[in-house]
Amino acid sequence: MKKTEKAKAYFFRYWQLYVMLIIPFLYFLLFKYVPLFGNVLAFRRYRPGMGPFGTDWVGMQYFKRFWGDPAFWRAFRNTLVLSLLNLVINFPIPIFFAILLNEVHILPFKKVVQTVSYMPRFISTVVVIAILGELLSPSTGIVNILRMNLLGQKAIYFINEAKYFRWIYIFVDTWQYTGWTAIIYLAAITAIPADLYEAATIDGASRTQQVFYVTIPSIMPTIMVMLILNVGRLLSLGFEKVLLMYTPDNSMVSDIIDTLVYRTGLANQNYSYATAIGLFSGIIGVILVSSSNFLSRKVTGEGVY
Amino acid sequence: MRTYRDRSTILFQLLVYTVMIFTLAATLIPLVSMTALSLSSPKAIVNNEVFLWPKNITFEAYRQIFTYPNFFRAYGNTFLYTFGGTAISLVVMIFFAFPLSKSALKGTKFVLKLVIFSMFFSGGLIPNYLLIANLGLTNTRWAMLLPFAINQFNLILLINFFKSIPIDLEEAAIIDGVSYVGILTRIVLPLSGAALATVGLYTAVFFWNDWFNGLIYLKSSQFPVMLFLRNIVTGTSMVGDAAGAGDKSTIAISIKSAVIVTSTLPIILLYPFLQRYFVKGVMIGAVKG
Q: What is the pTM assigned to this prediction?
């Protein structure tokens, strides 16, 4: 009796919230969970016009096929090499940048640098790659003009050559995300108690020494968490950027898993085969994220998620 | 006061300011250079005389792109996707986040788990594409406006913000007989300006910058300006029928630069005013609930 009354009161108070929730929740299920279950297509044969999730079960057929496909292994290797290289180079740069930015004591100047350095994060990848194409153009790009006029070297078609692809990708990432990523480290540095620095000053530590003995050790937990997060995201490269930089001439290094899925799936309409490749890399991604999160719990005492 | 000075301190300060000035230059030079190219005469460009300052200033490139109907249409499309997509997204996310911010509501924990799970494991490119195709959205503008309304990161940001509003306000309103719809519209939303601005701006930037979804879902008359730009760069589409006049490649360069400048200008102009919201967003997101 009391229980039903309680339920009644609960319902009377909250029914509006449930009504509110229904449409967004269905919307969410439709656009996030239907595609998620749509991954079954990796195990089913797709026939045009016969429903989005395929017609009959074929088991692991598509997985076996890509397992024996050199194009897949090339894309897999390219993805790993590019991500690892990017991590090694672009992980430390924002940390250094934040530490140095914190040492700027002319406040208006600091503000200007900060504001300007975040900006590239909001510029479209298309624009970034278009600008890059113009700056690196063999005929009119500044880079080649300077190389020709000052160093007397021949023009290089940077965008099109496979050996430059990875470095250009990484450099663009540096340009676009250093300032933005540094925000998190900067916040961690700002949170360091001022008396630590005062004590260090009294002990006679110079600014440089304070950076090494106060700042860096204090933000170490943040660095660890960010590192773990980045390892978790290892397989998710900037797909759009790679696609925009992709040319047939650099494909031997620029073809990553995502572009392979795009080409086999949407360009050649091998839907099931592409879904199988996508699903495989998605599962590896989940394993990476959850194991790095587990590691974070072990090391820093708390998980990121 | 830190008055302690030694040689390493001075060297260190030198390093600090060198890096900062380098950062400023590296960030700004490409943008300034594009502007200079877009304002220069084709002749100066072909003679490699243009670097950071326009030579023989002319607005010819801008005049030209504004006569191209396909550029105008693309620009208009982008405005439509940005405003429409952001509006739809905000409405859906507010009505999703508000109930989910009430921990006392049964079932919210489960829904939140579903939300978080979908951040890590999602349907890939192909299942998403087939869904949109089977809903009959391909080749319609709805393909840009509907599927991206819910972004889990922004949703969590909103939920956390709603949670931070004191529960006393809600209790007092309930006693006064105000419904939850009233609480949302009269108490919560007026207090959420900063959070809504943050989420709205992130969403708007997403729509403004998107090109890939346009590429796979739309036909050319519906393309957003970023896809238009990408097609000029890859040479998939001609800028306009006038591109044949004069030196083709250099006209293309000043025109390309003019498209780059005009398509990025709204973001750059608004950016100084908006950046505090963006930064707020990254901080709230970093704390995580």
A: 0.88
